Amino acid sequence: MHSYTEKRVACPHCGHTISITLDASNGSQEFYDDCPACCHAIHLNMTVNEQMDTIELLIDADDEQVF
Questions:
Q1: Are the beta carbons of 4 and 21 closer than 8 angstroms?
Q2: Are 3 and 23 in contact (CB under 8 A)?
Q3: Per-residue pLDDT tens for 16-36?
Q4: 46 close to 30: Cβ distance less than 8 angstroms
Q5: Residue 67 lies in a domain
Q6: Share of the chain above pLDDT 70, in %
Q7: How far apart are the first and last CA of the chain?
Q8: Cβ–Cβ contacts within 10 Å for residue 17, how many?
Q9: 35 occurs within a structural domain
Q10: How far apart, in whole angstroms, are the C-alpha atoms of residue 31 and residue 59?
Q11: Is residue 32 one of the residues assigned to a domain?
């Protein structure tokens, strides 16, 4: 059983709203996605709470790239 959820998030770099499809069937995950507007990497941290049947998504800029 796949449990896909679509979330709309704002890019922490430029504020552009993007739609991300999350697959909660593999549990909590950490991944990166590129903003289609400004092409910067967005760090996404998805926490699946199976008892409460909720998905928490934390997003931030990829702070490891300091220019």
A1: yes
A2: yes
A3: 999 999 988 889 999 999 999
A4: yes
A5: no
A6: 90
A7: 43
A8: 9
A9: yes
A10: 10
A11: yes
Measuring CA to CA, which residue among 42, 57, 51, 3 is closest to residue 26? 3
Whether 66 shows a pLDDT value over 70: the answer reads: no
Distances (CA, A) of 40 to 37, 47, 54: 8, 23, 28
Number of domains in the chain: 1
Which amino acid type is present at position 32? Y
* CA-wise closest residue to 47 among 32, 29, 26, 33: 29
Torsions phi, psi for 64 (to 5 deg): -75, -20
> CB burial class (10 A; 0-12, 13-18, 19+) of residue 6?
exposed
62 in Cβ contact with 43 (< 8 Å) = yes
Find the domain containing 16 and state its range. Answer: 4-61
Q: What is the pTM of this model?
A: 0.78
